[in-house]
Design brief:
seven-stranded mixed beta sheet; 429 residues; six-stranded mixed beta sheet; 30% helix
Length: 429
């Protein structure tokens, strides 16, 4: 259910929001919480049948609604929604877009599934009609198996990319494409779709029917980026005309594409590209997106959310382009449901090609990590104990090395443990 025991009072509706944590002293999911007597229970997709409180709600015949539907009814209704969808980059593009609108003085509301460094919060509601939302394709609730983004009804939709993921929800890529096409069907003809023009899956989605103007990025004749300079800056062009230069230090070709998507979407809301380009030149980034967690013993430790083979590959390639011949040590926790199932395990060895050494945390996997990474030979180590993993990395790391830790979870505090282990080592000359 949506965040835990938060009591909402929106438009006169007293709602009990359940599901991700415990707030205001109400812990767990016991049926005694019916005594709260809210007007409405807001249910998110982490709650399943069998949850004792949910069973009590159903038995009592009390009113309930999905989190995305509640959001659509109580927050998004009457607003100009800019929704950012895609397998990768949703958090980054949504943060870029919100920042561009903010710098343009438009004071947007937003809901972002990460921590944008340029804002003190991940979500806010303002008086502006503009609202930026990270539009996830995961299912809505146990009683509504449509993707969450179907509820948002955006006027501007960014389709950043589309690959197979969420194997616990979708049978195959075609099933996800179907949900994306449902999203396309909700965008009005007076709106805008900003789409990755080089993505084959998105081409199929749009070919199934589109009633909205489409602006493509990443292809000739659409929104294009010039070759990056040594710092990562690049020129931006629209229909072959150069509009300006983004000057920043973000890494990777994926971030260049993210920027093009954000500039195009902002233009659809009235922000001229030169203003958007200037805003991105002051963009600080996202926590857990190539975030430097610290340096110890001459070794730099990064944290990144990458957990899909494509994201792992592009993140490593971005770091490699930045650090040149310095050694890169990739540390991977295959933690998502899709990764634990081993659905894309065959793609993992190629995804870490840019690294000099690879460490895989192999605990709780439904597949043999050592067998999968065997083609990498001595380059890869698969370790199922966290302390042993930290010790192995610390023993291997040399001054000047770049350690990139990739996981969509907390990784058992590995970053801090590793920095501590590196700091305790004898001085290395």
């Amino acid at each position: 259910m949506l965040r835990s025991k938060l009591n909402h009072d929106v438009d006169g509706v007293y709602a009990r929001v359940l599901g991700y944590g415990d707030w205001y002293g109400f812990e767990g999911f016991g049926e005694e919480q019916l005594k709260l007597k809210p007007d409405l229970w807001v249910v998110g997709n982490v709650v399943t049948r069998g949850n004792p409180l949910m069973e009590a709600i159903l038995d009592a015949g009390e009113r309930y609604i999905s989190g995305p539907q509640w959001l659509a009814d109580q927050v998004l209704a009457g607003r100009q929604v800019l929704a950012v969808a895609g397998t990768h980059g949703k958090t980054t593009v949504a943060s870029m877009l919100a920042w561009i609108l903010e710098r343009a003085g438009l004071d947007p509301g937003f809901l972002i599934g990460g921590v944008p460094l340029d804002f003190p919060v991940s979500a806010r509601l303002t008086d502006s009609r503009l609202f930026v939302i990270e539009a996830d394709e995961y299912d809505t609730a146990f009683f509504d198996k449509r993707s969450k983004f179907i509820h948002y009804r955006p006027r501007t939709a960014v389709l950043n990319n589309l690959e197979f993921d969420h194997a616990d929800i979708f049978a195959d890529l075609a099933a996800i494409e179907r949900q994306f096409h449902h999203l396309v069907r909700t965008v009005p003809q007076s709106g805008l779709i900003v789409a990755n023009g080089a993505d084959e899956a998105l081409k199929r989605v749009l070919a199934n029917g589109c009633w909205t103007p489409v602006e493509s990025f990443g292809i000739p004749g659409g929104w294009e980026a010039g070759a990056p300079d040594s710092e990562g800056g690049f020129e931006v062009a629209w229909k072959g005309r150069v509009l300006g230069r983004v000057r920043w230090s973000l890494m990777g070709a994926h971030n260049t594409l993210n920027a093009l998507a954000a500039i195009a979407a902002a233009r659809g809301s009235g922000v001229e590209p030169d203003r958007a380009i200037g805003a991105l030149s002051a963009f600080s980034g996202i926590r857990r997106r190539m975030e430097i967690r610290g340096r110890a013993g001459g070794v730099t430790v990064y944290d990144d959310f990458a957990h899909h083979p494509t994201a792992i590959r592009t993140t490593l390639e971005g770091l490699r382009a930045r650090v040149g011949k310095a050694r890169v040590l990739a540390v991977l926790e295959p933690r998502s449901n899709t990764m634990k199932r081993g659905v894309m395990k065959e793609q993992l060895p190629a995804s870490v090609e840019a690294a000099d050494r690879v460490y895989v945390y192999s605990a709780a996997l439904g597949w043999d990590a050592a067998e999968v990474f065997a083609p990498l030979g001595a380059k890869a180590s698969c370790i199922d104990d966290l302390d042993s993993l930290v010790a192995a990395i610390a023993a291997d790391a040399r001054p000047g090395d770049q350690v990139l830790v990739m996981s969509n979870g907390g990784f058992g505090g590995l970053h801090g443990k590793l920095l501590g282990a590196l700091a305790r080592r004898p001085s290395v000359k």
